[in-house]
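Supplementary Note 3. Input sequence used for the single-chain structure prediction.
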Amino acid sequence: MMVRKSDSLRVLLLRWLLAPLLTLLAIATLISFYSVRVATTRAFDRALQDPIQALVQRIVFVRGRPVLLMSQDSLRSLFTHVYDKAYFQIADDSGKMFAGNLNLPIPPSLMESQAGASHSSRMSRLSTAGASKLMFYNARYAGRAVRVGAMWMVLVDTNGVAHPLVVQIAETLIRRDRNLYELLALTLMPALVIALAAVALVSQGIRRGLEPMEALRREIASRSHTDLRPVPEEHAPLEARPVVMALNALLSNLAALIDGQHRFLANAAHQLRTPLAGLQTQVELLLREPLPADTANVLHTLLDATRRVTHLVNQLLALARAEPGAQYLLRLQPLNLADVVESMMAAWLPIAQEKNIDIGFELQPTWCVADKLLLQELIGNLVDNAMRYTPAGGVVTVRCYRSERAVIEVEDNGMGIPLNQRQNVLERFYRVEGSPGNGCGLGLAIVTEIVRQHQATLEILDTGNGVGVCMRVSFVRREH
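The predicted structure, written as discrete structure tokens, is reproduced below.
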């Protein structure tokens, strides 16, 4: 059977177990209905024989014609029922009725079965030596369904002449149907109770049987995208263990691949940083010497390029540490955002003074849970971006405060970020068109990865004065 996307193992098991069960219940219902109907019909047909026999016993010949010797009171008591109506007729083989209120044709099958019956019996009463035939059939009379009992009899008069007669009694089906459905209900009630109990037990059994699978699902679903630990196999059902083993093998290969990539990136960046630092130092030393103007210009260009490459290498190292695969490097601890910002002020103030930027701090004791190195990298990138894109004479404000979460904001009055590009600037190597400076487009991408690792939130907001941008990061708050 082809499994649809919406199918679950629970649904499949219920379908395969309950569908046959309900099918068997339907078949049992049909069989019970047929059996009960046959039994009810036979019982009521036997009950219908009594009034037929009562009529037969009261038929005599008077003056050459059959006469029913029963009073109206006797007939009423014989044919009056609470629910049903009963009719009767006595007719000869040609269909001529001598008594009764029923006008139904004689069934041909009854006449054919008596074609060879003896017509010369010497008895003055009913001939019973094979001369009578009783049959039952369904018909309609007065617009209603009726059950008819018919008996063929041969009555011999005093002259020895045989007279074939047919006695028919018709009865409506109200009592039969009532008894049929009552008996059917009594018959099916235990089966229905058993079926409902079976459905409940099957559902409960499937639920209990799938609990290990549900536990396995919760185990996998509860993990973050950075958790590549093997899934425990001992708690998985035997049927699911090959899947778990294959999943663990995949996770192991994936972890090895990611670890290899991070190691390569970190090693490559580290190997580049050392010679670049040496190159930058040598160029700075050369610039201290008296040089021709053309040579000095070339060296200044080389120094700027070296600083850009060094910055890029440092950013790549930070990105390697902030990516999901490096989750195992995290060292989470309670930190005061105000203390972290104060420890970094000394590095920012000279840069702000050189660019003629007024940098201010609004710090409140604000505790969060974070990795100290990554938190410093996050704040440093936000402040670096703010001062890089704020013109001379601008203002940069760093603040932290307590609300429902621990919040740090870096606000500037620079060029800002257009609304339609605020999602794009979080991607790697993306820069807003027309941006000044020589940034590499990794700062906010690093911030995004650090925010994701700490399960924090990053918002890019407008400022209150209508220019610039406010970068807000909200961490899980921790009281200290």
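The chain is about 50% helix and 20% strand. Residues 10-181 form a domain with the Beta-Lactamase fold (CATH 3.30.450).
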